[in-house]
Backbone:
């Protein structure tokens, strides 16, 4: 393979972007970060891409863990796509710095805006607006693929300075709290004990007790459990019973159940 795309996803946006980038790039393999084991799986591609959602204005922990092992693959060209709900903020600058600290260069970093899956702040928005975001992504992805094919080096995309300063502070403050934020998940009477929440969790954070989910404080806050629950029985805090669920319309449950 000439290109390897590592992706992380909760609700399919990043997987969809990864698929579209792969379609445009040819000879590309997609690897889910959630189940990747660098010891059993050497990567020899010249080009490596990281495609992941922005979490709390920064890089999610599973992507940072992958970076620990990335240098041994010695990629010639490294790029990233930070998939976000409209505020990429400092994510790609952070990624660039983390890679530099491991003697790797981020050749290009792109932002793609998709519907937000951060349900504590509300649903994904009207379908027409969602479609506008998909259309804009479809326009941008061929441009990204052209840059990758030409192995161009470009400045990473970033948000306004005020946002990067303020929100990087929030990212740093919350980063160590994320695994325990699952204390606010709960399950309502609609739960039919199907166990999909357990199977869809990329962090293996859910056990079933008498058929119902219990979260074990290794949460990555991807919201896959809540968003993919077929009964909409999983809630977070007080407001989610009133909010619409979301996953990318072209990504199916089976695509995220196994993740490799
Ligand atoms: C815990 C969490 C934090 C998020 N933080 C941000 C953020 O800081 N900026 C932003 O634009 N979107 C944010 N989002 C929205 C996601 O980045 C966005 O919906 C993304 O497309 C989800 O990708 P996925 O479907 O591949 O999981 C956040 C989502 C979650 C679940």
Residues:
């Amino acid at each position: 393979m000439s290109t390897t795309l590592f992706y992380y996803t909760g609700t399919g946006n990043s997987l969809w972007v990864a698929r579209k980038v792969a379609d445009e790039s040819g000879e590309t393999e997609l690897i889910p970060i959630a189940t990747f084991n660098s010891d059993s799986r050497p990567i020899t591609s010249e080009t490596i891409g990281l495609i992941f959602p922005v979490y709390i204005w920064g890089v999610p922990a599973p992507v940072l863990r992958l970076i620990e092992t990335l240098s041994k693959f010695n990629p010639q060209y490294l790029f990233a796509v930070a998939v976000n709900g409209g505020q990429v903020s400092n994510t790609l600058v952070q990624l660039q710095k983390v890679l530099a600290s491991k003697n790797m260069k981020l050749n290009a970093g792109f932002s793609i805006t998709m519907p937000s899956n951060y349900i504590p702040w509300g649903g994904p928005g009207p379908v027409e607006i969602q479609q506008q975001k998909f259309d804009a992504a479809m326009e941008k992805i061929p441009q990204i693929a052209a840059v990758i094919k030409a192995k161009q080096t470009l400045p990473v995309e970033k948000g306004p300075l005020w946002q990067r300063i303020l929100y990087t502070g929030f990212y740093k403050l919350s980063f160590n709290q994320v695994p325990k934020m699952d204390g606010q998940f709960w399950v309502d009477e609609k739960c039919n004990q199907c166990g999909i929440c357990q199977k869809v969790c990329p962090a293996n954070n859910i056990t079933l007790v008498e058929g119902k989910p219990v979260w074990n404080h290794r949460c990555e806050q991807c919201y896959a459990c809540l968003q993919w629950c077929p009964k909409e029985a999983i809630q977070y805090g007080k407001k989610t019973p009133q909010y619409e669920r979301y996953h990318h319309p072209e990504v199916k449950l089976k695509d995220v159940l196994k993740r490799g």
Observations:
- Residues 176 and 252 are 31 Å apart (CA to CA).
- The chain has two domains: 3-173, 178-257.
- The domain at 3-173 is CATH 3.40.50.360 (Rossmann fold).
